[in-house]
Amino acid sequence: MNGIGSICVYCGSSNAGPPAHREMAATLGRGMVTRDIDLVYGGGRVGVMGAIADAVMAAGGRVTGVIPDFLMKHEVGHTALSALEIVETMHERKARMAELSDAFIVLPGGLGTLEELFEIVTWRQLGLHDKPVVAINPDGYWDPLRALIERAVETKYARPENAGLLAFADSPEGALDWLAGQAGRETHLDSDRL
Q1: For the stretch 67-84, what's the b/e string if a residue is b when 16 or more beta carbons lie within 10 angstroms of its beta carbon?
Q2: How many Å apart are CA 155 and CA 178, to the nearest integer?
Q3: What is the pTM of this model?
Q4: What interhelical angle do 47-58 and 19-34 show, nearest 10?
Q5: Which of 28, 64, 76, 86 could hold 172 in an S-S bridge, CB 3.0 to 4.6 Å?
Q6: SS3 76
Q7: How does pLDDT run across 112-137, given as a tens digit for each residue?
C-alpha cells in the first residue's frame, strides 16, 4: 500500500461483544497481510484485539503490541507476537502506538476504544499528526458517534472541517481501499460513507 507500511488498530479487548466483530477483525488482519501492512495494536490476546493479532500472525504478517505493565494481566497480554513492547503508562502506550503507525483504523470497542479514537482525531485536529483515521462501521455501530460529531458541528462546538477528520467505511476492504487512496497525499477528509 503506497506509503502505508503499518496501521494502528484500536478495538475492544472483551470477548463479550458480537462474534461477527471478531470475525471482521480477522478479515481486516488477513487483508492487511495481503497488502503487506504491519499491525500495531494494544497488545491484548482476547476479544477483538486478540482476533486481529491472531489473524495477522497466522497469515504470516508482523504484529507489534504495546501494553502497559499493569495491564499485562488485566488485558491478558499477547506473548506470541512479532514484538511486544511493555511500557509504564497508558500515555506512553498511546504515544508509542501512534509513533509506530502510518494510519489508524477503529473497530468496535468500548470506552477505551472511544478514548483512543477521540485522542488520535484530536491530535490530528491540533496538527500533531496528519495520518488518516477511518472507523469500520458494521451494522451502523458508529452511527451514534457520527451523529454526535455532526451535532457538535451544528452547535458550533466543532468547525465543519473537523467532521472530516474521521472517515467511515462499511467493511475492512473499504477501509483499506480508502487508506490506499490517502497514502502519499496531503489529506482533506470527508466523512461520507465508503
Answers
A1: bbeebbeebbbbeebeeb
A2: 29
A3: 0.92
A4: 30
A5: 28
A6: coil
A7: 999 999 999 999 999 999 999 999 99
